Recover the amino acids of this structure.
């Protein structure tokens, strides 16, 4: 048994890693919890390559003859100098986790760690008019950009609708979304302070409808965080892609 594990261990590790990648990218959309949609082809290609390498490794191990360096020590245990580094077995843990218990998308804990985040100076200017008709579906990133830097105040007087998850800070609650450039590792929180309604449960996903409350001059510290006066809060399922692209 031990000899079989030694012989086929590398192939098993490669197969598990391949299965984990293909499970989240080819057979589901779980990869969206960790990376941008555009990276899906690369994840699938990596999974297929690892699977091929695993098969090749297994076939090579099956056809291999006993190596002259294999010998028995006095304690009765065999020793094979062809053994790979044992640290490689640590890859089995994250691979099994992705296969059996895929970690959820980042939530309120990640957002609160960077609660003091501010937009870097983007310059005050004008933005295109919002589409006609209310309510207007808008992302959190667009809402905060317009609230902070739109000198024409194109959102004023309009009814807006956004979706995000709930975070809290003492008696204040926020509609929050994490923005990523590439993957969850570079996630940055974007949040809107909500007035006019009681806070839903932390980490629950909601769609909020309301009107923007101008606060401070564009580009000033007083303009952060932007505020929405809510008229309706509806609990929803987490979207397939929980992140917004920045």
């Amino acid at each position: 048994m031990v000899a079989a594990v030694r012989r086929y261990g590398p192939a098993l590790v490669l197969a598990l890693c391949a299965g984990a990648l293909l499970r989240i990218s080819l057979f589901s959309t779980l990869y969206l919890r960790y990376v941008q949609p555009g990276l899906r082809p690369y994840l699938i290609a990596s999974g297929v390559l690892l699977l091929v390498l695993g098969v090749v490794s297994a076939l090579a191990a099956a056809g291999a003859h006993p190596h002259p360096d294999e010998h028995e020590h006095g304690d009765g245990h065999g020793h094979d100098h062809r053994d790979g580094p044992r640290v490689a077995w640590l890859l089995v843990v994250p691979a099994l986790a992705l296969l059996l218990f895929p970690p959820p998308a980042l939530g309120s804990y990640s957002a609160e760690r960077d609660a003091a985040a501010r937009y870097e100076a983007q310059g005050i200017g004008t933005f295109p008019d919002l589409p006609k008709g209310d309510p207007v579906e808008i992302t959190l990133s667009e809402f905060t950009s317009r609230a902070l830097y739109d000198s024409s105040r194109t959102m004023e007087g309009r009814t807006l609708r956004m979706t995000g998850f709930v975070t809290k800070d003492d008696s204040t609650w926020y509609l929050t979304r994490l923005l990523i450039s590439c993957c969850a590792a570079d996630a940055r929180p974007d949040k809107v302070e909500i007035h006019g309604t009681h806070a839903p449960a932390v980490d629950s996903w909601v769609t909020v409808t309301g009107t923007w409350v101008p606060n401070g001059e564009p580009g000033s510290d007083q303009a952060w965080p932007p505020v929405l006066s809510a008229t309706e809060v509806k609990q929803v399922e987490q979207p397939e892609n929980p992140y917004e692209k920045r």
